[in-house]
Design a protein that fits this description.
By secondary structure, this protein is an alpha+beta fold. About 70% of the residues lie in helices and about 15% in strands. The chain contains 8 helices and 4 strands, in the order H-H-E-H-E-E-E-H-H-H-H-H. The chain has a two-stranded antiparallel ribbon. A two-stranded antiparallel ribbon has the order 2-3. Helix 1 packs across helix 8 and helix 4 packs across helix 8. It is globular and about 55 Å long.
Length: about 200
């Protein structure tokens, strides 16, 4: 019995390793092309800006130059002010752009933006040249869907405020789970793309 369990465990490990290897092949194939790299860079920067704007930490104001840091920034940086949100520790004004800098929010937004960028890069490359990554155009469209839907994760509550809708407790609870749900969906999509790749053919 123990031998069978050990064999099954090794089989799962081997399949997971093969899936991760295929996913790496798909991502490397997308990022080896100029359009894939351009899509990754553009999507990452735009999504991070929208993420910070959705949190109310990025906006426009009077022209100026300023850097203000709160007292005890290390303690304030880890103070939770909402689901997956932390307190800003500095105000950065550069020209008309105002940024409330929260290192943990920026780190989380950057990670999510990179996931969105990789998914869109694979999607665009698969759509424009399926043979380059051994992916069909349908796979590319499917890979891009979670990336687009994940935009609701950061901006959902802000959109409700803009349109003047009063969110119920149930709706707010749903929004709290959108961000981890978006991360799971983006990672799952990348792994699914990995199942469509034949490493020997790339």
């Amino acid at each position: 019995m123990s031998g069978e369990l050990s064999s099954d465990g090794a089989g799962v490990t081997d399949r997971l390793g093969a899936l991760l290897a295929r996913t790496q092949v798909a991502v490397r194939g997308a990022l080896s092309r100029r359009d894939g790299r351009a899509t990754l860079a553009t999507a990452t920067v735009v999504y991070l800006a929208l993420y910070l704007f959705g949190l109310g930490h990025l906006g426009l104001g009077p022209w100026g130059w300023e850097l203000s840091v709160v007292a005890d920034p290390l303690a304030r940086a880890t103070r939770v002010v909402g689901p997956f949100q932390w307190e800003p520790v500095a105000l950065v004004v550069a020209g008309p752009v105002e940024l409330l800098l929260s290192p943990l929010n920026v780190a989380l937004g950057t990670g999510l933006a990179a996931l969105v960028g990789v998914n869109l890069a694979v999607s665009v490359v698969a759509y424009r040249g399926p043979r380059a990554c051994r992916l069909g155009a349908g796979a590319g469209a499917t890979a891009g869907l979670p990336a687009l839907l994940s935009g609701v994760a950061c901006c959902g509550p802000t959109v409700l405020l803009v349109v003047g809708l009063q969110a119920s407790a149930t709706v707010l609870t749903v929004f709290q789970w959108l961000l981890p749900g978006a991360v799971v969906a983006l990672v799952a999509t990348l792994l699914w793309v990995g199942t469509k790749v034949d490493p020997a053919a790339v």
